[in-house]
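Protocol step 4 of 5: obtain the predicted structure for the target chain.
Materials: sequence only (see below). No template structures provided, no constraints applied. The aim of this step is simply to have a reference model before the mutagenesis design in step 5. Sequence pasted as it appears in the construct record:
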Amino acid sequence: MKIAILGGTGDQGPGLALRWAMAGEEVIIGSRSNERAEKVAAELNAELAQDGAKTRIRGTDNVTAAGEAETVVLTVPYSAHVSTLESVKEQLRGKVLVDVSVPLDPEHPRRMKMPAAGSATEEAQAVLGPDTKVVAAFQNVAAHLLRDPHHPIDCDVLVCGDDAEAKKTVMGLVAKMGMQAYDVGPAESARVVEGLTSILIRLNIRHKVKGGGIRLAGLPR
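Step 4 output (structure tokens):
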């Protein structure tokens, strides 16, 4: 599968790119700046080469990346959520979009500031329309844990969206990273999934840790 990560030069993108590339997927880093995307891709390729991985990561602008990929992952800051979606709307038709966004209050990051649609995931679906299948995932996984591809992540991934087949596709990509994914329902479930991020931030601060996540007990693995 060819995967594009829009905003892939930020916090979460490089870790996702490395883990999927090491699993054999073709990954394209997207950015507003083509030069920035190429620079980050070169840095990640240097890491892959040290591990003897043959898969390579490419860098380009967001629009080109979205057009070339089969599955697209959105990892931009929430402040750029709608503008980025609108810029690649045509390129996303008929594809699966994995939305990693969390609408945290920029003035109080331990609080949520949900959009009128109810969640970032539902907002993305409203912007893109029914031709794109939006799935929420990875909201509760710390970026620095993703960035160390040799470190197993003791965290489950909650997946939600309105298209069953799209969710299966995303859950398969989660499994390739060595993590367990659970389907937690339709897109409106993202209101809870995204909201858990603010709770995790509070817990991490209170307990002076950085990698607190969600782990489900009593379910088949």
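Step 4 remarks: The radius of gyration is 16 Å. The first strand starts at residue 2 and ends at 6.
Proceed to step 5.
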